[in-house]
Amino acid sequence: MTDLDIAINNISPLSEETRGEFLRAWSSWSVPRDHFMVSENAVCDHIYFVKKGILRIFYFKNGKEITEWIAMDGTFCLSILSFFERTPSRLQIQTLEASEIMGIHYDDLTGMAARFHEVETLFRKMMTASLILSQYRMDSIQFETAQQRYDRLLETQPELLRRVPLTYIASFLGITPETLSRIRAHR
Amino acid sequence: MTDLDIAINNISPLSEETRGEFLRAWSSWSVPRDHFMVSENAVCDHIYFVKKGILRIFYFKNGKEITEWIAMDGTFCLSILSFFERTPSRLQIQTLEASEIMGIHYDDLTGMAARFHEVETLFRKMMTASLILSQYRMDSIQFETAQQRYDRLLETQPELLRRVPLTYIASFLGITPETLSRIRAHR
DNA sequence: CGCCGAGTTGAACTGAATCAAGAAACGTGG
DNA sequence: CCACGTTTCTTGATTCAGTTCAACTCGGCG
């Protein structure tokens, strides 16, 4: 059983035969640190699974780098807007450590969802889980202070704080590096 | 063809026979103004469709009323967290006008998604669309000013501004009524 | 007529951004 | 192993959007 296998099973178990065929639709890459999985102006047409390492999604907004998402070992990673709207975007996806990454192409995923009811169910549950996460994140951005958001990250993903440069974490939390620095010096 | 029929068809068309059975799973209600579809401490276990009128989702946060969503004619309406996590919440859903509302129960929706691949696909596409919307809203809250958010609403949903009291709109936009008032007086 | 709630206006306050220097940490090459 | 430049992080002063709190206006309605 690979890690991807486990991750999928946790969301929605597949029958033996569907699972084999579904897993075969995934590619895998071993990539060094600072490698770009998706470069500027490309369409993001894979959902990635981080077997080992860290992926960072970011893009430029008014000349500033915005870190949209950071995905650690054992989690999925995609730019929702670029992937589903199928548009070339200013988005980029980069490794922050030497990593082992798996990925499934948009066409393969939707194709298999059409062929296998089970895969469609899995797909739906992944979307639902993302939606719930997205709602929590929105609530956090809207109502929590920078301090509270940092505290929560410290509690839920302490690993991430140790492995990712401060600037990226700040951007991911929706604050400036200066503010994060002040928070860490507790005030 | 009812409005619900059209709305569903726009997301993901169903075959003749599946459609009939799926539509039969929906209930419908005619309710007066200020009627509560979901009261405090109840689990939200329907996805609603607003055939005519307006629904408002809100809850209390630190003693203050937060308007989470406003759904106008022809759109769907649910509290994502309460519906999918199946927990009693402080959420409430209220009509702002005399309305005709349809709704499908969580159990019926998931049941039919399990029986009909087509319904599962529809369900998945609804989730994806919600996710995209949620991402846009998050981006708006994080990076746009109150003025920009108001301008966008004015452009995309002018109807809503005419039919919904200012206080609710302010809360929906994530600002105080005072700030909205100042924006409208353009500064 | 006077009340009442929705909306407006004003003044003080606040969390975080911005701008601008510094200080530490980190390679890289001598 | 040390000087160096570069990047990363910290610290300080100022500014700004939006909140808070309090008073006031206005239109509708018993």
> What is the subunit arrangement here?
homodimer
- Count up the helices of chain A: 9
Structural class of chain A: alpha+beta
Count the E strands of chain A: 8
What can you see in these coordinates?
2 copies of one chain form a homodimer. Chain A is globular. In chain A, the strands form 2 sheets. Chain A has a 4-stranded antiparallel sheet with strand order 1-8-3-6. The longest helix of chain A is centred in the last third of the chain and has 27 residues. In chain A, a hairpin with a 2-residue loop joins β4 and β5. The mean pLDDT of chain A is 92. The first copy, chain A, has 187 residues and is α+β, with helices and mostly antiparallel strands. Chains A and B meet through α3 and α5 of A and α3 and α5 of B. Chain A binds a DNA duplex (30 and 30 nucleotides) through α9.
Short description:
Chain A is α+β, with helices and mostly antiparallel strands. Chain A has 9 helices and 8 strands. Chain A is globular.
Descriptive terms for the model:
DNA-binding; globular; homodimer; 8 strands; 187 residues
